[in-house]
Amino acid sequence: MHTDWDRCVRAVQSKDARFDGWFFTAVLTTRIYCRPSCPVVPPKPENMTFYPSAAACQQAGFRACKRCRPDTSPGSPAWNQRADLVARAMRLIADGVVDREGVPGLAARLGYSTRQIERQLVAELGAGPLALARAQRAQTARVLIETTALPMAEIAFAAGFSSIRTFNDTVREVFALAPSELRSRLPKKTVVAPGVLSLRLPFRAPLNPDNLFGHLAATAVPGVEEWREGAYRRTLRLPYGHGIVALTPKADHIACRLTLSDMRDLPVAISRCRRMLDLDADPVAVDDQLRADPVLAPLVDKAPGRRVPRTVDEAEFAVRAVLGQQVSTAAARTHAARLVTAHGEQVEDAEGGLTRLFPAPEALAALDPESLAMPRTRRTTFTTLVRQLAEGTLHLGVESDWEESRARLGTLPGFGPWTVDVIAMRALGDPDAFLPTDLGIRRAAQELGLPSTPAALTARAAAWRPWRAYAVQYLWATDSHPINFLPV
């Protein structure tokens, strides 16, 4: 995108928010970089240059605009619609792997050399993994400065900086303000509760919250998830500790209230919440493609901007997909709640009714199969899955190669097309995953005059690629199932 100079100039001159996160505008005269929708008067075209990432702007010596705050743009949708090396690396960097394990750890997870990863990231994004992680640390530091009363020293280490000096230098370089100046810009009446962060998660409009929050609320596992006072709340298992998040849909953002046991988990928690709500999607591109089909067009026009509800924990979702095989949503919740009560770690929730983390694969692998109230064949499916997840022979993290993971899942006993595809859609994040065998999809297809047999429907859906997972959301919306409606 950033290499198409004319298109970028038009987007900046029209202040088109759809392109926020796709590229960044650097102004040669002021040495400031902005998002395309920056509210200030656009610079002259000859003074513009464009970069694919905030990190590339920072490496080139530009500082972030104080008006539009380009570092808070929605992420590029490319990283969630691609499964190549660069996209997988970007998902891992957002998940904090470079800060925790360094570039060698990133390379080990991806199965490439550090040199290969550096070369490909620089070629596409203009910055290597260290610079990209540094840009993320700067944004994390700003969030902590502006939303907590933590001392600057604690913020520095919570954001992932190795020293106070590096923290101070980076904040000054990126934002042209000292950390103390950033904090002094806050309203004097701002009240910050200890350990609680209140954030705004941006997204590209439009966003239809009905199916997104409706699905999460309807399938919520008691103790782990709940819908309370207009917010979806759940517990989070994080690298350094645990957290509780409350997510509330608003007109132009998602209000996010985070309680963390360790502030170092902030960037990971934000990344996983954004991923769960599919906030980095490009709804205009998706809807334009699906609207070209005369059958889907009325569904898209009625409620544009549907997202794919995903997950904060891929292993958890895979377990829940097995528990949901051939049973109702209520029965699947009951099975999951029993596991949570018996094996989930306890947490305290001062603001609601959350009590536990969903059990880790290691805990589930140690349970007695006879204690599972399910048919013997599904017990075998369940125990095989959790054992392989616990042993590390099956990986479903953000770094996963989608096709490789699909093939691996398909070899497990009891894993048919529906289970593989629903995990690909909601855990792996494949935007083209499709569920032609799903009863709700077949019922919707029949009602709309589409082919209802899996093979014929798959052939018909070829025109919806690469957005078939979004087509699934629109097809499900033709049913009166409660997952399609925002709770009240």
Automatic annotation (TrEMBL):
Q: Does the keyword Nucleotide-binding apply?
A: no
| Transcription found in the keyword field | yes
Q: Offer one Pfam family short name for this entry.
A: HTH_18
Required cofactor names: Zn(2+)
- In what residue span(s) does the HTH araC/xylS-type domain sit? 87-185
Q: Which CDD domains match?
A: ENDO3c (cd00056)
Q: What class of enzyme is it?
A: hydrolase
What PROSITE patterns does UniProt report for this protein, alphabetically? HTH_ARAC_FAMILY_1, HTH_ARAC_FAMILY_2
Q: What protein name does the entry list?
A: DNA-3-methyladenine glycosylase II
User: Origin organism of this chain?
Assistant: Streptomyces lannensis
